[in-house]
Amino acid sequence: MGYNLTNRYNFDCKRIQNDDSYHIEYCITDICDRNCAACSHLAPLAVYPNFVGCDKFERDIKILNKILPDIHTFWLTGGEPALHPQFLNLLDISRRTFQTCYVGIYSNGNCLKKYQNDENFWEFIRENGIVWAITNYDCGKEYFENLFGMHGCLNNLTYVHSGKHFFNLTNYSRNQPVSVEKYEKCGWERSKLNIRNGKIFNCPSAEFVDLFNNYFDKDIKLCASDYLEIDEQLTKSRVDNFKGPVPFCENCDLTQRYKKFFKNYKSKKEISEWSTFD
User: Fold this and answer.
1) pLDDT by residue (tens digit) across 196-211?
2) CA–CA distance from 223 to each of 116, 182, 201, 228, 248 (Å)?
3) Contact, 246 vs 203, CB < 8 A?
């Protein structure tokens, strides 16, 4: 696959939820310029930016590229990844490392107003085949279609979510069952690797639990079996075998998922947005 996107990128969540080559999401910052209720990455609770360093980032993804030859798409995510002061540099590192797969960024699109007339920016997007996966909160699809179209980048634009509503995908609970059956019913995408702070997680609930604990003064435990360290000992078989229930699953009650509806509300940072705890 060349850098030039001859066809428009198709974001297919059903493919990610089933067997497919890996989609990797690398969280490069915890903060976001929106404040969405029940955010599955818990960004409203982030106090510090937690910007990943370029050297650390490059080390991690070179290991992943070495052991996972069949990656479908490598994504930068957050928070809002475009808030990272070096997000374009991180995209450049990603493209130079992953030369045969898609490279993209999840975004709310707010930062694109800054680059609206920056042809160097759009040339970088075109020549490197960078996919922008937009959650369309406020501007409307017409805005993004026109913006990307006027710069010859329509094939680089895709949509993840309308942004009109959210459900409580994260639901921290206590003493829940841990089983293969429960894992197979879980709604988190099973062909996706979630990476933050140099660790691979099965789901954002485990990935961002420290934000929940710190903000609400809770003590949900994360043990060494709940993640994989990205180091020179990491192998493809270890990554493949990690797709299954982990001890952290005891902190999730699937019967409560999708029970709460948030119509693009701003977060009140109330514990009930993410948990059944008192």
Assistant:
1) 999 999 999 999 999 9
2) 45, 19, 11, 11, 8
3) no
